[in-house]
């Protein structure tokens, strides 16, 4: 019998297979599961267990851009620049989201 905690997680958790490698993307705010208003700016963490990852990556996700911010910010996936496969996977759930790696060099 499956535990109710596995059927209905208390925290958002996604198992990812990106570019043939596996990892866990998770959040520590349970409101992400039930309150769409919490999806404005929120934090996710990613851990893959790969050698190049020495600690869990802390990502800040911003799902709403404003026209005055677009001119100042630089598109991380503009032509000529490679976009992280993990960022592209995150954008399958939150289209157009900005992913900030908070000082960590994107490794996945």
UniProtKB/TrEMBL annotation:
Record-listed E.C. numbers: 3.4.19.12
Keywords of this entry: Hydrolase, Protease, Thiol protease, Ubl conjugation pathway
- Which residue windows are transmembrane per the record? none
Q: Name one GO molecular function term.
A: K48-linked deubiquitinase activity
Highest taxon above the source species: Eukaryota
The signal peptide stretch is none
Q: Which InterPro entries match?
A: MINDY-3/4_CD (IPR025257), MINY3/4 (IPR039785)
- Protease recorded as keyword: yes
Catalysed transformations (reactions) = Thiol-dependent hydrolysis of ester, thioester, amide, peptide and isopeptide bonds formed by the C-terminal Gly of ubiquitin (a 76-residue protein attached to proteins as an intracellular targeting signal)
Q: Where is the Deubiquitinating enzyme MINDY-3/4 conserved domain?
A: 5-103
Q: What is the uppermost EC class here? A: hydrolase
Per the UniProt entry, what is one GO biological process? proteolysis
Keyword Protease appears in the UniProt entry? yes
Instruction: Tell me which family the UniProt entry assigns to this protein.
Output: Belongs to the MINDY deubiquitinase family. FAM188 subfamily.
Question: Know the name of this protein?
Answer: Ubiquitin carboxyl-terminal hydrolase MINDY
From which source organism is this entry?
Menura novaehollandiae
